[in-house]
Amino acid sequence: MTNAITNIYKSRRDNVAKSLENDSCLIINSSSNVIRNNDTTFPFRQSSNFFYLTGFDEPDSILLVNNDGKSIFFCREKDPNLEKWDGFMYGVQGAKENFMFDEVYSVGEAEDLIPEIIKGNSAVYSLIGKDLAFDKTLISMINKANKKERHQANIDLKNYSNVIGKMRLVKGGEEIDLMRKSCQIAAHSHKAVISNVKVGMNEFEIESMYLNEFRRRGSRYPSYTPIVASGKNACTLHYIDNNNSINDGDLVLVDAGCEYGMYASDITRTFPINGRYSAEQRAVYDVVLEAHNKSCEAVKIGNSCLEPQRVSERVISEGLKDLGFLDQSMDEILEKQLFREFYYHKIGHWLGLDVHDDCPYSIEGSDVLFQENMVMTIEPGIYINDSAPIDKKWKGIGIRIENDIRATNNGHENLTSEAPFDADEIEALMKN
Questions:
Q1: Which CATH class, in words, describes the domain spanning 170-431?
Q2: Does CATH number 1.20.1250.20 belong to domain 3-167?
């Protein structure tokens, strides 16, 4: 790891220290290996918050940041025998030499050393609720510390989740570069797959095409389990069975993104398996497209992050009314949220190290306002399931369009625009 990159993580820890009250500290833990089945584990994926502050990509570690700026780190001892099986480990000395921590100890010493370090503090901050086992361990450490300082008030345990979530919203230049690469890989993968699908394929065949394209373009892992939903399966938002044959005339909704340098992309495209939208499919698609385009325009510095949601609700409601799905007045449709019968999710979510970056849209009663280099997905959709009270010719249509949108000084940047999402462009791509 270069000094320039290491300095980025150190500067983030310095920002954490500045945010803490006097006589307090932040303590967070890394991810651990997760058992898949006997004697095997899932591929290790570091906790995003832990990685954001350390750049350290090994399990079973703990970071402590004091309000005075000192960072104390606990990690596994270097074990040459374990390295024969699992690969390189930094160990205590390697972590000290490469990551600019002030002090580094074996993680086996944490339960004895941390109570000694935090005794006399007024507060310990952590990411409460993210890892219940670590929460219990941390409470035990705090109780030990309280016993060491009998004549002082007990240490308060406070949640730091919203604070670090808000820190992560505004991306640095190096983060935007990684996200742009992740988005480029995902967009080119969508384009390649859409141009090669055929009637009669199984959903999981298309899923495998996406995973292959991600990997051959430089991304080892998807950023979430891909959704490949054909026909009425597209009306199930988190459909991941991906095991149905795709019939002539079906739409296919694919929600698939990848990771690059730990940063996520997230794209949804909806295309006709036979290369041509039916009249009904096209009519619904055009409403979703208009909602998408107008919602993107609302991603503007100084705007509330909830403004794209409001825009999408109005545009989709107008479209549903024009299609004859709703016959009430616009005021009634919006006030009673009657559009929820067909549009039943939010317009999008924050994007970064997590495909759903963890920060509320409102903090202490105030909406979060867009700043430069915040990234949000914009993903309106219309879903017409079998229970919808409309003509059966519309039923089974599920359409979503999703792009990753960066707020800029000039409005917004669509990081995933290289994957066509205009219906005419998709049809033209599928003819080639």
A1: alpha beta
A2: no
